[in-house]
Design goal:
Radius of gyration: 17 Å
Number of domains: 1
CATH class: Alpha Beta
Order of helices and strands: EHEEHHEHEHEHEHEHEH
Oligomer: single chain
Strand order of the largest sheet: 1-2-4-5-6-7-8-9
Shape: globular
Mean pLDDT: 95
Length: about 250
Amino acid sequence: MPVEFTPNTVIAHRGASAYYPENTLLAFEKAIAFGVSWVEFDVMLTQDGHCVVHHDFALGRTAKGDSLIHELTLAECQMLDVGSWFDRQYRDCRIPSLAEVLKLFVNTPVNLNLELKAKNDDDFELLVNETIHQVRQHWLDKRGWPLLSCFKEEVVSLLRATDETIPRGQLFEDYNASLVETLTDAPPFAVGMHHTCVTHEIITHVKQVLDCYCLAFTVNDRQRANKLFACGVDAIFSDRPDLMVNHE
């Protein structure tokens, strides 16, 4: 079944990340408990070519050390404590593999948005191929494609070239009208932008040009969520999905 966004969708940003260490199985389990319909998380490659779920390219914020994720093996990544930075009680949280996360969600009603993050241009194809391999192995036998998104236009184009049926999300740090125009030959499934960029005019333009869903990140205020939905935004990313779900 293809993915879709129902009106006023709330996407749990890196899980229930305001309450638990982001991008961990615990944060994802709590998002499920909150009853969200969508969860977003970040995917990157390890040194030995495995997909793991982590936001920052470098350690330092969520784990001790200054190494880059792509310099570490999967085994080394999964030895790291990525919970203590948030609260000492979560010191047993580890970096999950993409396979672990897919297995956690596959038998739930939750839809997934995977943001692909490649440190180097040379990693684009490896990241896309391994992500698709994992999704096919642990997801597609029971579910339709998840939404695969990236800020890099090259990665989004590569997703399309690999399999046109994959729902693709093009992310923008700032709204870029000229880039939107260049996407008309192969419109993405969704466009995502920072909520401070959003106006009714911009959302109208994107939908007229691309006829796609419009997503806004990252929103933790209910009044702001209401305004974004009124502008025509289809879904918001939130660290506090429990507060945003009942936004009216």
